[in-house]
């Protein structure tokens, strides 16, 4: 995914935070042409940084969200990392998940949970590791560190030189290469016109399975994959910002979906119809025009983020059915979005699913905002 697309996603995410839920949240926001967090500094909170050059040398005791041109993270982060930029280099350890998008991405550290990266070129150093799964899409992919579960790679040039304790899935239009010293504990499944190159000294414990793409369709398939990944990451980035910075609001929306599903549906249908009508009425008067603009802005953003909230709700159901006790909103978001993508592959139901997600998600947001307003009135805050 290109930097411009990722930039839009991040900025849109910030707009969603302030328009959909105008309540305060604990986060430190910094913006500068050149931002440096000194090595002896500790941010005991989530940190959001926007700038041309960003250098994080100190410790972030929370989540790190960074958007800029050149970004270097040499300090440790105790939470999740979400970075979009031109060049990204991470040498400090990340305790939880890492989501990286940019022109050039390099990792020389440990990621505690999952890694999701989309870039022009990607390199993972020998001394680095990913605690769970890694999903990487880039034109030039080099994985020389350790993946403690599964690895999914998409790109024209793919080299694997580290160890993978699970399966490896590769989609490429160039011959993938397993370098000497690489150790793969599971299967290697790859889709490519050419045979995989396994150097002498490489170890693959499982089976190596090749799938030949349909003649003349491989590039088209790769383009479709890029388009799908771009769309998936777009909503994931926005959802990531929402669930990490507004966890209480997210849980309230999900609770309303669980205990008041019918009411959410009714509120959704009512809101989708009434809000534009009210906005058009306000536009008739000069005094009401600014209010109409704000209303329409919130309306559009609420429509966009409704899928993220419903995805968290569905993801929680999936994890519960699988016996997982994970309470991570990010993990719920990921599995929920993935479930909707799979549902979209079934002919005839994609449009129905999208409509239901919009209605129930929008309604849950409206109902949650109403409850917040009532609570604020009781406390005489409004």
Structure in words:
- The protein folds into two domains: 3-224; 246-378, no CATH class.
- Strands 1, 3, 5, 6, 7, 9, 11, 13, 14, 16, 17, 19, 20 and 22 form a 14-stranded parallel beta sheet that branches.
- The longest helix is centred in the C-terminal third of the chain and has 33 residues, at 289-321.
- It is of the alpha/beta class and 382 residues long.
- It has helices at residues 3-20, 218-245, 247-259, 261-283, 289-321, 329-343, 350-378, and strands at residues 28-37, 42-43, 47-56, 59-60, 64-73, 81-90, 98-107, 110-111, 115-124, 129-130, 134-143, 146-147, 151-154, 157-160, 163-164, 168-171, 177-178, 183-184, 188-191, 197-198, 203-204, 208-211.
Give a brief description.
Helices cover 42% and strands 29% of the residues. It has 382 residues and is an alpha/beta fold. It has two domains: 3-224; 246-378, no CATH class.
Which key features would you list for this structure?
382 residues, alpha/beta, 14-stranded parallel beta sheet, 3-stranded parallel beta sheet, 42% helix, disordered N terminus
């Amino acid at each position: 995914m290109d930097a411009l697309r990722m930039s839009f996603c991040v900025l849109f995410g910030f707009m969603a935070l302030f328009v959909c839920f105008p309540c305060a949240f604990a986060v430190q926001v910094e913006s500068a042409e050149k931002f440096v967090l000194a090595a002896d500094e500790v941010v005991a909170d989530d940190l959001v940084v926007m700038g041309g050059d960003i250098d994080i040398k100190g410790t972030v005791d929370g989540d790190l969200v960074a958007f800029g041109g050149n970004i270097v993270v040499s300090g440790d982060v105790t939470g999740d990392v979400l970075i979009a930029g031109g060049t990204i280099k991470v040498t400090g350890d990340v305790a939880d998940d890492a989501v990286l998008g940019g022109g050039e991405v390099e990792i020389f550290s440990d990621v505690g949970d999952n890694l999701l990266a989309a870039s022009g070129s990607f390199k993972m150093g020998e001394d680095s590791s990913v605690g769970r799964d890694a999903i990487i899409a880039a034109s030039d992919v080099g994985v020389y560190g350790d993946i403690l579960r599964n690895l999914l790679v998409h790109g024209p040039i793919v080299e694997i030189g580290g160890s993978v304790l699970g399966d490896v899935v590769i989609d490429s239009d160039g011959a993938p290469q397993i370098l000497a010293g690489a150790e793969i504990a599971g299967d290697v499944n790859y889709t490519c016109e050419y045979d995989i190159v396994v150097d002498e000294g490489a170890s693959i414990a499982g089976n190596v399975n090749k799938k030949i793409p349909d003649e003349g369709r491989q590039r088209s398939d790769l383009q479709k994959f890029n388009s799908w990944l771009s769309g998936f990451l777009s909503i994931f980035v926005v959802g990531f910002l929402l669930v990490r910075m507004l966890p209480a609001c997210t849980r309230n929306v999900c609770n309303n979906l669980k205990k008041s599903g019918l009411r959410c549906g009714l509120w959704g249908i009512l809101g989708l119809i009434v809000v534009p009508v009210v906005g058009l009425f306000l536009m008739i008067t000069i005094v009401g025009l600014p209010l109409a603009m704000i209303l329409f802005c919130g309306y559009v953003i609420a429509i966009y983020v409704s899928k993220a909230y419903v995805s968290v709700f569905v993801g929680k159901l999936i994890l519960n059915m699988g016996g997982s006790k994970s309470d991570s909103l990010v993990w719920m978001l990921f599995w929920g979005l993935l479930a909707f993508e799979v549902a979209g592959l079934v002919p005839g139901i994609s449009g129905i699913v999208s409509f239901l997600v919009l209605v129930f998600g929008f309604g849950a947001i409206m109902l949650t905002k109403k409850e917040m307003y009532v609570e604020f009135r009781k406390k005489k805050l409004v």
